[in-house]
Amino acid sequence: MKVKILVTIALLLALISAAACTAASAATADKTEQGVKEIAIATSDEFDQNQHIRKEVEIAKGNTLVVTLFSNGTTGFSWDENAQIADTGIIQQLKHEYIGAETNMPGAPGAEQWTFEAVNTGTTTVHLEYSRPWEGGEKGVWTFDLTVTVK
After folding, report:
1. Per residue in 74-113, pLDDT tens?
2. Does residue 138 sit in helix, strand or coil?
3. I need a labelling partner for 35 at 20 to 30 A (CA). Which of 11, 99, 132, 139 fits?
4. What is the pTM of this model?
């Protein structure tokens, strides 16, 4: 009887451990799903530590790249709607959208999301700035630079 209980406990612990590992890997900032590569910075924490973030990504020609960055429009700051792409012959921006907060609390942050298509092989860069867009407003308080290699 004790052996059965110990085996059952061991199996439960193994299942819980496997579930935790699966959940942790699903929450990573960079993931790939069926032709879509996603890069996300969902909180301001990473930008608070480093105001100018650089990342690299590799995707296949014909695939889609989705970049999601923390944003809080109630502060007057927003990301560039149109990404600065060094070579639009390699990737092209398909769309940009604001994703609101999952709560109705005033001042709650959301995110901004860009969708790109890899149209040709090669390497290019994407540059985005988080600024107050009006004249005299702070410019480039945060920047996000992404080197994209399309294979």
Report:
1. 889 999 999 999 999 999 999 999 988 888 888 889 999 9
2. coil
3. 99
4. 0.74
| 3, burial (CB in 10 Å: exposed 0-12, middle 13-18, buried 19+) | exposed
Q: 43: closest CA among 27, 23, 32, 59? A: 27
DSSP state of 121: S
> For residue 95, which phi and psi values (nearest 5 degrees)?
-160, 165
Q: How far is the C-alpha of 57 from the C-alpha of 115, rounded, in Å? A: 14
Task: Please state, in angstroms and rounded to a whole number, the distance separating the CA atoms of residues 139 and 97.
Answer: 20
Return the domain boundaries, the chain: 30-150
Supply the CATH classification number for the domain 30-150: 2.60.40.2020
Which pair of structure tokens corresponds to residue 42?
């969902």
